[in-house]
Amino acid sequence: MWGRKMNVAFSRAPGLTAKVALRLMVFAGLVVSLLHPSTAAPMRPVTILAFGDSLTAGYGVAPSQSFPAQLQMALEAKGHKVTVTNAGVSGDTTSGGLERLDWALDPKPDAVIIELGANDALRGIDPKVPRANLDKMLANLQAKGIPVLLTGMRAPNNWGGDYTKNFDAMYPELAAKYAVPLYPFFLEGVALDPSFTQPDGLHPTGKGVAEIVKRILPDVEALVARAEQSQAAQKGATP
């Protein structure tokens, strides 16, 4: 309002040249901006919790080559402001993940990537157990309003067809139940490929991790977008 009054006054002031009037208007605009500074704060980086087992932790590779580290670099290269936290524990099952989820969520992240179940399958644990554990994790995250990307795993063939069918089916079924996006197989394009795996035939090399990141990146970018929308909504709701 003050700025509009100044504009009118300048237009009516006698003897003002166009250049002088323009300078005074610019000065008036500066005064107004100082009197009424913008309250809009820049968006803070999106924090992503990479929650999983050795495939997330980076077993057998340098920390800079782990999944969270390479994922953060890939996202930053695409222009995203993110911090990806490595919450992977080698050897962890879904039972272990469920036990430590609450403290892993402190401080609360903006988004979570769940990568668990491989060790349950390797040990031949009844699929009902990891299903129940993942169900509770997803319910917990949904209750906290945290966007999730669920990544699937596949059971080895040595436990039989029924086991494989029941185990593999739990990921899409849980994703549908909680309406969360699913990346069907975390090791897609990497599993059983000797050029991407360590001598144990199970864990990816740094090159293998890079392949995982390349393939999953579009899904994670969608997760970041959802987290940014959630940030904006929370910011708008703050008085």
Let me know the largest β-sheet: 5 strands, parallel
The CATH superfamily of the largest domain turns out to be SGNH hydrolase
| CATH fold-level name of the largest domain | Rossmann fold
| Averaged pLDDT | 87
Question: Level of helix content?
Answer: 40-55%
How many helical stretches?
9
Give the C-alpha Rg: 26 Å
Q: List the uncertain runs.
A: 1-16, 18-22, 24-40
DSSP strand count:
5
Kindly estimate the percentage of residues that lie in beta strands according to DSSP.
Answer: 5-15%
Q: Describe the strand arrangement of the main beta sheet, using strand numbers.
A: 2-1-3-4-5
Structural class: alpha/beta
Order of helices and strands: HHEHHEHEHHEHEH
Indicate how many domains the architecture comprises: 2
Measure the end-to-end span.
Answer: 24 Å
Which CATH class of the largest domain? Alpha Beta
Polypeptide structure, described:
The protein is α/β, with parallel strands linked by helices and 239 residues long. It has two domains: 2-35, no CATH class; 46-235, Rossmann fold (3-Layer(aba) Sandwich). The chain contains nine helices and five strands. Strands 2-1-3-4-5 form a five-stranded parallel beta sheet, with helices on both faces. Mean pLDDT is 87; it is low at 1-16, 18-22 and 24-40.
